[in-house]
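Readers outside the structure-tokenisation community will struggle with the description of the input data as it stands. For illustration, here is how one protein appears when written out as sequence plus structure tokens:
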Amino acid sequence: MAQVILESVTKIFPGGVQAVYGVDLHIADQEFLVLVGPSGCGKSTTLRMVAGLEEVTSGTIRIGDRIVNDVPPKNRDIAMVFQNYALYPHMSVYKNMAFGLKLRKVPKREIDEKVRSAARMLGIEGLLDRKPKALSGGQRQRVAVGRAIVRNPKAFLFDEPLSNLDAKLRVEMRAEIKKLHRRLQTTTIYVTHDQEEAMTLGDRVVVLKDGVVQQVNSPLNIYDYPVNRFVAGFVGTPPMNFLEGELVSENGATCFDEGADRIRLPADLGKRVSRYTGQPMVLGVRPENLSDRNEGGFAGEQNQLNVKVSVVEPLGDKMDVYMSTTAHEHLICRADSHSQIQEGQELPMYLDVSRVHIFEPGETGVNVSLTSDGADTGA
């Protein structure tokens, strides 16, 4: 086991296409770090550079105390689990799991002990004589993970390992991987495009966009204190609502004018963002921070939007309500399933103004709601 450190790591492919821009990461020994972002954001390229499957254009990668930029993949003492499992079809499960150890000339008795121990851990002891074609997707993924475990590497690298599984199996395997990490305590770097997967698995999460790290923090801090509009919109299901408008001063308070309604900001937030008064800004509010009930955290003066409901989607204990104001067409509220909201209804929707964010305009507009000293940014 070991720490993994990336210092100013950049990747430029032939033809001048730059995939990764100066990534700096310090993955602590035994930490589970998740790289998340949309397709093409550079997360898999970053992982492959750590593995040695892609050359680093500039910067330094350390595994433990050793710089590995020029070290071949087989000598980096890491184990990688791929999206497509990468099992040898002509070999049994046992031989697939044993293959890497056999190449290292590990004694047969030790190989047998390691393979059977990993198989017990993963619940695949009864599959050791089967070929991959006789296995389900979940069983193949367990074999791929088992092949990594037997090597007892310094670090595990996972590249979208669950994306080929159905939704139910993904949830089950996610829990299995988390339990394995707690048991093995091996440094792990995990790549996914699924933000829910990232939030449930990672000790810390790295959000990437266009090869640039946007934010690194614990899942909860990223959710509660997104540093910019991209992070706020990417993390969370359903995604955060964004209202374009302007900050205005009214009766000594700072308000957000979204074109049809004015939202009065809490005094502390208003003070932090008052310097942007008169400028176009963006208000962000998560679907669960909207309610049709003017009570609890949603109660207050001048904290409502007048909306028209277009679609109601029941989800069991919750329901997603799609609606619009005269100024904004696409808003979502995650309401209680017992709410009486109906399609076509016009009603006031109340905001928990203590949970709103104010962003600068643009796709990666900075979250100016966060305190200047970083006290509530989770930095």
Summary: The first strand starts at residue 4 and ends at 13. The two ends are 26 Å apart (CA to CA). Residues 373-379 have pLDDT under 50 and may be disordered.
